[in-house]
């Protein structure tokens, strides 16, 4: 018996796939038309130029007039306006402790506070610890105990240690580790740092 001709409406696998693809394309929402007017560019008037402020910072016993934008951190003000580069920038987000300074005797991470908020406070950086040529007992102990390698964390460790000793958190190595835990050392000098803090604490208490 002769094969009957394929009806004109018969779909082959190819035509089905093609028509499915076309349908799917049709179902896809058309991209949003471009806005008739592009979003307005930020105005370039004097109003959007960052405001600057004249502030006074008291650092290591000296007053400094500093011009800063309100968004400038204490860390950047110290390093970039006052050239006190002993305070280090590690993470710049409060995680490493490299930027630790004392503000009114309390240790803080200077990357987490704004310079404008610290007017009227007594700020101490690592540059302000020594008494002339005489290093602070914590500085001496860090050298004696070889408590650093690259030095990236060291000024923050020292400032934190000064406060830790004043706070009385040096009763044991475990206590020192706990209260110095906000200061990270990527060179892993922790054993020597703890020994240095314990040494300095004994010396300060004598
Ligand atoms: S630089 Fe401030 S905590 Fe790391
Ligand atoms: S000495 Fe290198 S990070 Fe502490």
How do the strands and helices of this protein lay out in sequence?
Blueprint: H1 13-27, E1 53-59, E2 62-68, H2 74-81, E3 100-103, E4 106-109, E5 122-124, H3 137-144, H4 154-167, H5 173-179, H6 190-205
Parallel strand pairs: 1-5
Antiparallel strand pairs: 1-2, 3-4, 3-5
Helix pairs in contact: 3-6, 4-6
The structure holds FE2/S2 (inorganic) cluster (FES) (2 copies).
Radius of gyration: 32 Å
Main sheet strand line-up: 2-1-5-3-4
* Helix and strand sequence: HEEHEEEHHHH
CATH first level of the largest domain:
Mainly Alpha
Secondary-structure content class: alpha+beta
| Global mean pLDDT | 84
| Approximate helicity band | 25-40%
Which residue ranges are poorly predicted, with pLDDT under 50 across at least 5 consecutive positions? 1-13, 15-44
Q: CATH topology of the largest domain, which one? A: DNA polymerase, domain 1
Number of helices: 6
Bound molecules: FE2/S2 (inorganic) cluster
Domain 2Fe-2S ferredoxin-type: 53-129
GO molecular function: 2 iron, 2 sulfur cluster binding; metal ion binding; oxidoreductase activity, acting on the aldehyde or oxo group of donors
Protein name: Xanthine dehydrogenase YagT iron-sulfur-binding subunit
Pathway: Alkaloid degradation; nicotine degradation
Describe this structure in words.
The protein is an alpha+beta fold. It folds into 2 domains: 52-128, Ubiquitin-like (UB roll) (Roll); 129-206, Orthogonal Bundle (DNA polymerase, domain 1). It contains 6 helices and 5 strands, in the order αββαβββαααα. It has helices at residues 13-27, 74-81, 137-144, 154-167, 173-179, 190-205; strands at 53-59, 62-68, 100-103, 106-109, 122-124. It has a 5-stranded mixed beta sheet with strand order 2-1-5-3-4, sandwiched between helices. The longest helix has 16 residues, at 190-205. It starts with 12 loop residues before the first helix and ends with a helix. Residues 89-92, 94-99, 109, 111 line the site of one FE2/S2 (inorganic) cluster.
């Amino acid at each position: 018996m002769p094969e009957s001709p394929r009806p004109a409406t018969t779909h082959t696998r190819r035509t089905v796939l093609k028509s499915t693809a076309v349908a799917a394309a049709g179902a896809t929402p058309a991209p949003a038309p471009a806005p008739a007017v592009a979003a307005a560019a930020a105005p370039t008037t004097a109003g959007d130029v960052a405001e600057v402020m004249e502030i006074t910072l008291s650092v290591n016993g000296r007053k400094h007039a500093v011009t800063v934008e309100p968004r400038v951190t204490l860390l950047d003000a110290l390093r970039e306006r006052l050239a006190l580069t002993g305070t280090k920038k590690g993470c710049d987000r409060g995680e490493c402790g490299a930027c630790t300074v004392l503000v009114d005797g309390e240790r803080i991470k200077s990357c987490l506070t704004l310079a404008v908020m610290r007017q009227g406070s007594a700020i101490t950086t690592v540059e302000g610890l020594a008494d002339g040529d005489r290093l602070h007992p914590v500085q001496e102990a860090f050298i004696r105990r070889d408590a650093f390698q690259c030095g990236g964390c060291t000024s923050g460790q020292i400032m934190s240690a000064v406060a830790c000793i004043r706070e009385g958190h040096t009763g044991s190595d475990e206590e020192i580790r706990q209260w110095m835990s906000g200061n990270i050392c990527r060179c892993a000098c922790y054993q020597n740092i703890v020994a240095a803090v314990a040494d300095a604490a004994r010396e300060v208490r004598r």
